[in-house]
Design brief:
The structure is a single chain. The chain is mainly α. Helices cover 68% and strands 0% of the residues. The protein contains 8 helices and no strands. 24% of the residues are buried.
Length: 141
């Protein structure tokens, strides 16, 4: 007998694994935990710069497991944050890798954005990008 709950969790685990493999290919990494840290740090930095409504719209297109890490620790009050420059955005990613040598935060951000663009609708990507200041929008190219 199939357990529908286990099927749901199995599917989200599979989708999440695909996203992480895509990110590992983008970054030429072999460490899935490092890829997870990259995905999580960029998603958190992005989420905090979107309006609450847009953050929720983006989350709706994430695999359930990724959506959980996206919302982890989120406090929607005071969002979006007022930090509007690329250096401030990248500092959040660097802090997630503070114990790792040689991590290029901009390369990580661009790779995560390419993975998002591969798996999320163009309309939602455009909506998220258009909320961001030009300095951050350039990271999506």
């Amino acid at each position: 007998m199939n357990d529908p709950v286990m099927e749901v969790f199995g599917k989200t685990l599979e989708k999440t694994h695909i996203w992480l493999l895509d990110l590992m290919r983008e970054l030429d990494w072999e460490d899935e935990h490092k890829a997870y840290t990259a995905l999580r740090s960029v998603l958190h930095a992005l989420r905090d710069r979107l309006s609450v409504a847009e953050a929720a719209h983006l989350a709706a297109q994430l695999p359930m497991l990724v959506r959980g890490c996206y919302y982890e620790g989120w406090n929607p009050s005071g969002k979006p944050v007022k930090e509007r420059h690329k250096e401030e955005f990248l500092a959040h990613i660097k802090s997630a890798f503070r114990n790792s040598e040689g991590i290029d935060a901009e390369k990580v951000a661009r790779a995560v954005f390419r993975v998002l663009a591969k798996h999320i609708s163009d309309g939602e990507i455009d909506d998220a990008k258009n909320i961001l200041p030009e300095d951050l929008r350039r990271l999506w190219s």
